[in-house]
Structure formats: C-alpha cells, structure tokens
Fold:
Amino acid sequence: MKSMVFITGASGGLGKAFAVECASRGWDLFLTDISETALSKLSTGLTNTYNIDVDHFCCDLTDFDSRTGLFEHLHEKGYAFSFLINVAGLDYEGPFAERTRNQIRTILRLNIEANLEMTHELIKLRDPARTFRIINVASLAAFYPMPVKAMYSSSKRFLLNFSRALGEELRSQDITVTALCPAGMPTTPACIEAIEAQGFAGRITTCNVGYVAAGTIDRALRGKSVYIPGTLNRMLKAVSTIVPEALVARAVGSRWSAAQCKRAAGA
Structure:
C-alpha cells in the first residue's frame, strides 16, 4: 500500500490548505475532522480534482472514545503513513477568569492531549521504508506570554517545546518534527474579525493559508524544526528575544485588550 498523509482538522481553513497542497503533489490522504459532511465533500473534491486516493473518518478529537475509534479504524485498514500534520486546535480569547470549566478542558484536550495521542499512535503506523515527517501547528503566540490569550499561547508553547524535544529524540529513527508557528491567518470569519481588530499590525503580520501550507511542507521535507512564515514575523520573533518577557507580556496584553475593545464597540 502507498504511503499516505494524515491531516487532523482537515476541513478547516489551514487544514484544507494542507490537504490541497499535499494533493497537488500527488500524495494520497487520510483526513479527519468533526464534520462528516465537510469531510465527505472535501474528500470527493480532492479525489476528482487530483486523481489521488483519499479516505476520511469523522472524529471528535476532544473525546477519548472517539479517538480510540479512529485508531481502531486505522489499524483495521492497515494504512501506512509518511506524514502526520496535526492542525486541529482552538482558541478561547478573553480573560482567563471568564472562561468556563468546559472551555478549559476542551482546549487542553484538543490542543495538547489529542495532539500527543495522535502523534504517539501514528508513529506506530509509519511507513518503515520512508522518512516519517510530523508537522505540529503551534503559533507565533508560542514565543510570547499573552494576556487575554493565556490558555491558547501556553498550549502552543507546549507544542513548540514538545516538537523540538521529540524531533531530537526521534532523529536517529529517521523521523523529523516541524513546529509551524504562524501569526494570524484568515481561516474563519472570527479570525478575520480578530485580525481586523488589531488594525495595521494585525494585517501586516497575516499570511495566506496556501502560502503557509506550501512553505511548511517544504521546510518539513528539509527537516527544519521550526518554521515561522513571513519575513516580518521572523524579525519580530528575533527582536522579542532581547526584550524582557515582562515587558513583552505587558505590550501584548495592551494590544489584545485594545483589539477586544474595538471589536466590542463594533458589535
């Protein structure tokens, strides 16, 4: 059986961009997301357009039993994989004290728990004849303490550190791990609204999802451990390393608080 590329969060903006980019390279795909309708439509479209094999399985990655069902399906099918692209994730923007217990559990289960379980399981199903590439979607937020986005930025920091550590751990086994750390991307109406609320700063750091997907895959194939799309974003990251974290947190908090006030005023 040919090697496949596994993509989580496949029907979202970035996940779909990764699916299209991989399909355009002639790679067979396995897609998962929470919507059967969206997955079925995407799978059919990719198969017809690029003449590749695409399978999918609807899964709520925040649910242990649902993930178990997905893993059992993969083993029953006997699939082998050369790529795992962990895209699925979410954000709850706003003061931490206003978050619900369910929101706290959900972001932990999706951004961290599901990513780790997926990575752990897919390593067992790698194609032994090929280098196995893992891409974890972190964020530029992983490099900063971010008030108003404290849960999100911290979960992405976890993924960044996990990816770096795992890549070194598995290097001798012909496995590479790449952490994607993008700034804002116009993937959903809510994301677009958040970008616009940040004004000029939000717009100039935003990258197109197709550009991000293509660039990430190219870097993963070269074994790069971290990829920050956009020259300006890489410059911002470099500058931030010489600024005390306390000042960074204060500046980021002021920026996001102002953006929230602007969004609320326009609601």
About this structure: Confidence is low (pLDDT under 50) at residues 185-206. The chain has one domain: 4-266.
